[in-house]
Design goal:
Layout: E1 11-13, H1 15-20, H2 36-45, E2 55-59, H3 64-77, E3 79-82, E4 88-93, E5 99-103, E6 106-111, E7 113-117, E8 126-130
Antiparallel strand pairs: 1-3, 2-5, 3-4, 4-7, 5-6, 7-8
């Protein structure tokens, strides 16, 4: 099974430095009315289990209310990842397991963070659970603090 290593070539900013750099200005988690794309993504990632082929992550609660709550925590507390392509995401590390990764409907790992993909098109912004371990040792490019605990 292969996963995209989102940290390779990315630049990271802790929440405080991201805010100081203006990276959090004007962000909207969803459009005023969630798009069909966002509704489909919320259903896909709020489970309760994955019926997708290939790899998919699903929140353990199966609750779209938790999906919304975690996305707001990402906006209010998360660190920012800027990929080489310029794509930006907010990542919120929870204090507990929030999701499960599935490979063709079989559980393969537990996840403790939410990655919220930002888009210049507010109708495309969406989130999914990830393992914070992929960010171990990553430091803020400005203040050099660890972005995860």
């Amino acid at each position: 099974m292969t996963f995209k290593n989102t940290t390779a070539g990315s630049t990271f900013y802790c929440h405080s430095c991201a805010d100081k750099q203006g990276l959090l200005n004007g962000l909207n988690l969803t459009s005023t009315s969630p798009s069909t794309y966002q509704i489909d993504k919320a259903a896909k990632h709020s489970g309760p289990i994955s019926t997708e082929t290939g790899y998919n992550s699903v929140l353990n609660s199966g609750s779209t209310a938790e999906y919304d709550s975690l996305s707001r925590k990402a906006l209010n507390e998360g660190f920012v990842e800027v990929e080489q392509s310029g794509a930006k995401s907010l990542v919120y590390q929870s204090t507990s397991i929030i999701g499960t990764g599935y490979n063709s409907s079989s559980p393969v790992n537990q996840q403790d963070s939410l990655r919220w993909v930002l888009s210049s098109d507010s109708s495309k912004a969406h989130g999914y659970s990830v393992e914070s371990g992929k960010y171990t040792g990553v430091k803020c490019s400005l203040c050099s603090c660890n972005v995860t605990t």
